[in-house]
Structures are given as structure tokens and as C-alpha cells.
Amino acid sequence: MRLRLPDLLATRKGRLAAFFLLYVTEGLPLGFTAIALAAQMRRGGMGPAAIGVFVASLYLPWAFKWVAGPFVDVFSSDRWGRRRAWILATQLGMVATLVAAMPIDYVGRIGLFTAIVLLHNVLCAVQDVAIDALAVRVLPPAERGAANGFMYAGASVGQAIGGAGVLLLSAWMPFQATYLVVAGAILLITLFVVLPLKEPPLVPAEAAPAGLVSVRRRLGAFVGDAWRAFTGSRAAAVGVVVALLPAGAYALSLALQSNLAVELGFSNSELAHLTLASTVAFGLACVVGGWLSDRFGRRRMLALFIVLTVLPTLWLAWTLWRAGWVVPLDLHIANRPQPSGKLLLTFWTVTVVYNVFQGLYYGVRSALYMDITTPRVAATQFTAYMAMLNLVISYTAWWQGHAVVRWGYPVTLALDAAVGLLCLFLLPLMKPPAAAEPAVAAGRPSDATFAPETPMPHGDEPLAAPTGAAFAGAAPQTSGTLAPVDAPARIDQPDAETSHADAEAARAPESAGPAGAAAGDPAASPGRAGPVQPAAAEPSAPTVPAAGLSRPPPPTP
């Protein structure tokens, strides 16, 4: 008797469950590589600099995943589904790369191991692009807010399983065997979720032009639209500089934290419990931070939360300096000094408190970038901002690994705190357009809402409304990290998958004159499936409830 599996896209509950599980497959690899593997590398004697380079490489694919958008749009399979084929192929590739990496000695052959894991994360980032495109295609506008929350939760659950879960399992099985556990979890979702999916077919008139010429045209359009968006206002231009700077201290969310935990004598089980506590603290703080920003203002709250991330970082730096725990120590030397109970308690407390403060600002920062995004180029501009945030996670992990070896932990933590405050001098210049302020002041969603980015994986962090901005991650900010797939398409054209009736509806507000455009131009997001919703009378900039925000693949576990 043949087992018939349900098509989860056929019902509302099924769609929410499907995208939750699909995002679990994005969080699993990030948690496994950035948390569990990084800890094992330090335990195996690898230096902080090499681990920093390894972790930095994990986030690079998420910073450039927008390049995959035109390929996912143009090249497809009628038999396997336009987006489903990409999801299926990338998940099988992720399983294959995990199995290929399993026998490699990551201490002795770190170059080869990093290359395979980098390929694994490239596949994961491309999968994210295809999943986001599928979500835009099949989710009705009324379901997108709920789906946003489920996708964010799925990425967080995946990171917890891949990080804390694997560390707990390593007490019961050889660590090498956990590769198969992660690969098996991805494969189960491939078999029981992806394969039974029935993606709605395209009619010939909706099909996107095929070939590399079409890909090149879309990429060119992306770059052109992004340039016009970034130079269109002072806030948007300043936003580029701020996006390329760390927002607050980062060290306690990257490899430095797991390296130090291993040196302080944390077992895998103890590190797993710390990771779980940090994840819960981060998630709850995201909700609170969003509520506070709606009530008291984005930039004011963001500045406060950024400063707060510096306090536990400096506290730990001072404690380490006083305890004489300055430079990385060889884990296998004789008569190795043992940390005091006070130092261990401080490290545990500082890590959790830091995650509270980082969680407070994560969603607020994304909302601020939505506020300064031009609605007509929302998908292009917001995706580029999120890519820059992922790039910051990558280069920060790189320099901190080298700084720890050269100057030690206290100095590196102090530098991290100082660099994280630089963006505060530019925040006053990121004032959103006047049209964006009423929605923020009133604490209600905007009429021009679009879906945010989720990294994981910072990175790294999706379906708040019928546009194609990123569905986080991240996430690579999780969190990410969720990049819009159709961003490279021309902003003034409807998506190839949008029906002719919807295309006419998308053009209608433009013909209504300036008032219609101000209220929320539906052409602001290329490639949106489903009819355009009527705009409210009061114009506003795109915002999103903070509880649904995802971060680019998040550096925080």
C-alpha cells in the first residue's frame, strides 16, 4: 500500500506548518556550524584566529544571496515546480556537503573543511531565496503576518537544535556522528514536506524569460534600482554607512564567546544550557524591544539598546583583566590555571544579559531600515541593507579572531564596544520621511507594509505584507537572517507570476495620481503574488510588528 502524504500548501494550517519546517532547515546548519562546530574546534586546539575566519566564511553567502534571485526566477522545472525544484536540489546538496565534511579533520585540514562548509552555506542561502519566492507565490495576504512569525520561530528552533541540541547529543555519541543527525533532520523535511508539495503551475503567459541574458538584465536592474534608492534621500544614504558598521557590541554573539566558554572549562552540556537560556532571552527581548520602539520612537530606543549591549561587554572585559585571564590559553598545557567561581558566574550572567539587550534592538533596527526605505523600491533597497548587515557579521568575526590572538580578550572586548558605538553619531541623520512618522507615533502597522529580512545566518533574522522584501533569516539577522527573491526585477513591472488582472490592479494606484502613490504604491515590490490591497487614506512608511521580525542568520544562538 502506497503512503500518500498531504500537500501542505493546500490548507492554511498546512502552509504555516510547511514554512515553519522549511525554515528549520535554514536554522539547523547555522546552529551546527557557528555554535557546535566552533566550540569543538576550540576544544580540539584550534586557535581563535582560525576559528574567526571559519565563522566569518559562514555569513558571506548570506551577504550576497541576492545574486541568486535572478537565477531562481529564470531557471525552473515544469516537472518539479519552479521554486520547489530549487528547494529540493539545495536541500539534497546540503545533506551531501554535511556527509562530505564529516570525515575531514577540521583542525589539520581547515582549508578544505571550510571550503565544504562554505559551499554548504551557499546552498542554504540559495534555498532561502527559493523558499521566500515560494512563500510570496502561495501565501494569501491575510496569512502572511502569521507565516512571518512561524518562519522566524522555525529558524530559531533549527538553530537551537543544531547548536545546543548537538552539544547535548555529543555527550552520548561521538561528535562526528552528529553530522548525520543534522543531515538526517534536513532529509526528513525534504522527504515529508518538500516532495509532497504541489506548487501552483505557471501559465505560459506568466513564465519569466529564460536564459543568461534575462539574468544579466535583472541583476543590472537590481544594481540600478539600489543606487537610485540609496541616493534618493539623506536618510537612505546615511543608512548605507550605518548598515556597514556594527550596531553595538558583537563579540558575545560570535566565536569569541564560544571560544572563551571552552577555555573557561565549560563542558558541551553546560555550553548547551547557556545557549538555550540565551536563545529564550533573545526571543522575548525582540518582542519587548519592538513594543518599546513603537511607543517611544525607533531611533531613541535603538540608540539606548545599542549602548546597553556595550555594558555587559565592558563588564566582562574588566572582570577578565582583574582575573588575569587575558590571552587565549592552550587547553592541553600542564598546570593550566582554573577560573574562579566569580569569573564563571560573571561570564554566564553577562552572556544572558547581553542577549537580552541585543534582542531588544534587533527588530528595532530592521524596522528603522523599513522606515527609510523608498516604497517603490522596497524589495531592492531593503534586501541590500540586510546584505550589508550580514557582511558586518562576517568581517567582525574575522577581525576579532585575530585581535584576540594579538591583544587578548579584554582589549578585544573593549575595542568591540568602542567600534559598536560609532553608529550612534549617524543615527540622528536617519530621520524617516515625514510620511513614515504618523504610523510609528500611533504604534500601528503601515499601509505600505512589506515583509522583513530573517542567518542566520547575522548571520545571519518575513511575510508581513504582499511585497517581496526579505523573509528573514537569518536566519543568514537567524537569524538572518530572508532576502527577496524577485528584487532584481524592474520595480515598475508586476511579477511574472502575477496574473493579468493583478497586474492591472498593481498599476491602478499610479493612475490615481500623487495621492494614490503616496498612500502606498503597490509597484513598490516587484514580484508580488496576489492582488494589491487598497491603501488607507493616511500614508505611512513600511513597518512590521516586531514579534515577526527575523534577523539575518543571527550570530546569537
Automatic annotation (TrEMBL):
It is a multi-pass membrane protein. Residues 445-467, 494-557 are annotated as: Disordered. Residues 508-531 have a biased composition (Low complexity). GO terms for molecular function: transmembrane transporter activity. Residues 497-507 have a biased composition (Basic and acidic residues). InterPro entries: AmpG_permease/AT-1, MFS, MFS_dom, MFS_trans_sf. Residues 15-435 form the Major facilitator superfamily (MFS) profile domain. Coiled coil: none annotated. Pfam families: MFS_1. The keyword Membrane applies. Keywords: Membrane, Transmembrane, Transmembrane helix, Transport. The chain crosses the membrane at residues 20-39, 45-64, 85-104, 110-130, 150-173, 179-197, 235-256, 271-292, 301-321, 341-361, 382-401, 407-427. Gene3D superfamilies: MFS general substrate transporter like domains (1.20.1250.20). It is found in: Membrane. GO terms for cellular component: membrane. This is MFS transporter. It comes from Piscinibacter koreensis.
